[in-house]
Amino acid sequence: MSVEEGRASLLSAIRGPQDLKRLSGEELVLLSAEIRDFLVAKVSRTGGHLGPNLGVVELTLAMHRVFDSPRDRFLFDTGHQSYVHKIVTGRQAGFDQLRQRGGLSGYPSRAESEHDMVENSHASTALSYADGVAKAFALRGEDRSVVAVVGDGALTGGMCWEALNNIATARNPLVIVVNDNQRSYAPTIGGLADHLSSLRLNPGYEKVLDLVKESLGSTPLVGRPLYEVLHAVKKGIKDAVAPQAMFEDLGIKYVGPVDGHDIGAVESALRRAKGFRGPVIVHAVTRKGYGYRPAEEDDADNLHGPSSAFDVETGKLLAAPSVKWTHVFAEELVAIADERPDVVGITAAMAEPTGISALARKHPERVYDVGIAEQHAATSAAGLAMGGLHPVVAVYATFLNRAFDQVLLDVAMHKLPVTFVLDRAGITGPDGPSHYGIWDMSVFGVVPGLRMAAPRDAATLRDELREAMAVDDGPTILRFPTGSVAADLPAVRKVGPVDVLTEHRQKDVLLVAVGAFGHLGVEVATRLAEQGYGVTVVDPRWVRPVAPELVTLAAAHRLVVTVEDGVRTGGVGDAIAKAMRDADVRVPLKDLGVPVQWHPHGSRAQILSDIGLTAQDVAREVTGWMSRLDDTAPAERLDAPTPAPRDNVGPAR
User: Which of 194, 373, 456, 537 is 20 to 30 A from 19 in CA distance terms?
Assistant: First the structure.
């Protein structure tokens, strides 16, 4: 049998974790190679998180050989490093539709498998989950292990350290695997390191140490100093071979570092950790993108997450390059920073994805990467603003949710000029519900003094970024979607800050198209004109606070319709309805937006179609509403309630 045939037969024979336990060391090496080939082949067709998973092949196999999932619970932080776990838990076939409608999620999914416990695709959360699960097992008297795989990047998040403090106090059995793929330490793989790891996890070792401490501590003058000397020697030996002091000071045992690509070494460490029956950190040093040359040679991020199909030989994306929203923002930010020395950038471990890296290359001394710590980013930005600077905090829209309190009380209450730039706002598609940026316009709409802009194209993004950074008495938010920027859509005229995109002499409908829905609004107007209705399409540009001019425009029409790429509850439609009520404008309003529920992963176009946010859907809805208005007596229309019914289960009908 050839090597290739051997590899194929090994992977095809894996139906579940139990099948791994029967493999020899040589077979595990062959299986690891085949899994890497499988990952490259599948992800090259769909896009997804490639680099992190290539780096955890041996680590994941070792975990499943030592522990018994799903009885023993695995948690991955972040969940994008769980592809290998999915492969060995019977989900190989799902990779043909990875991150596509009806296919496999790109993160752990409770709906997919009993082997998945949480869809923890926001970083730095797994240790808190693990702490709670371990406490529950202990309270219920269940002899089950909890294993949390934490990337070294996740350890930059404050939640990890809050959890570690509680884990150390609780003393429950819990194995924390630190997947360190960014740096390595002095070599400690070998006999001495292995022996010391075993010694540290031997309960008798601590008992002997306590006995020595008790005996010598009772001896005047000599006893206590001698114990301190012995303890210092012990710590010195341990610190010389591994950087575990920080963790052991917390009261958590440490094993490592071990070669994360050596299954035998990882298994040995995990078995000792499992047998200790307390909290243990296993430090595994891995290489992101390991085993696939294009990933290993990618200096930017080791092919961390190709967004779409790519060439297997080169690792290059197959789709023709296009202008992205992120690129436009990055370019304009650098231009502004060139003009203004007070401009600084902040990122939460995502310099490349958010575009802050462009500023870092031009002005490296003016960019701060705070790690996966959005709360700290917001309050640190407040401090920078207090110091006379104008910080730009660039994060994905979904991640700013984590820093609401800081934006509210640390930035807004002090009326500080901090600009938050939210990439991937709205429905983002393949990454699933945890990554949809649909909450920001509702959540942050309640912050006093905060101004929020939603550009519709590259030109308005540039303009609104500059307008945001001209604000000096409070925070601003600039939000835009993922992907390619649509063609510029010039306004036919302006009414205060509001752009009029198209208008008709017949004032039937005022269609408020928020942000990237500008083109959709114009298409809807064309469709409605064919039905005999005159539509004025406006882009408010600044959606919070509501411009008085927008209310004035509303009063001149028979019906107001809002279309936004955010949740309806508390969204732009709600805000405009309130402004109309306050101004005693009694024109009926219908709001179209994202229903408040969890939407499955799929393409952005598919999801928008599902929830009725296409030009055809909107035109059909408005035609129905106008038809009912036409059938209503004028006097009754005058008394129509201002707001649309708020059932929040879909587009207003």
Answer: 194
